[in-house]
């Protein structure tokens, strides 16, 4: 059993494994903050539509586990083209995690994953 963190930045994919949920969440936060600081995308114009940087996903950091084949928890953070971050739960049907007042996307992810993990235990 363990937790897997997958970092997708453009065509690059990195994977890391962790035995403890807190270590995996710390890694998600560290990489997410690093990527958010360095991300700065330009708007994209397509024939009939314009995509502003906030509408583009520059990087996605996914967390799954603790089971290996069919993880019961799937969540992550999207780093947008303007450097903003947004936490989500789910894989196919992603649901945005609502941030509470004064809470970062990483804190919201930690809260949502911890609650989901406690419910399954």
Percent of residues in β-strands: 35-45%
Following the backbone from N to C, one meets helices and strands in this order, namely EEHEEEEEEH
Compute the number of helices.
Answer: 2
Rg, Cα atoms, Å: 15 Å
Low-confidence stretches: none
Oligomerization status of the protein chains: single chain
The structural class is: alpha+beta
Number of strands: 8
**Euclidean distance between termini CA atoms:** 14 Å
What average pLDDT do the residues reach? 90
Task: Provide the domain count.
Answer: 1
DSSP helix fraction:
25-40%
What's the arrangement of strands in the largest beta sheet?
2-1-5-6-7-8
The largest pleated sheet is described as:
6 strands, antiparallel
The general outline is: globular
Short account of what is shown:
The chain has two helices and eight strands. The protein is α+β, with helices and mostly antiparallel strands and 121 residues long. The chain has one domain.
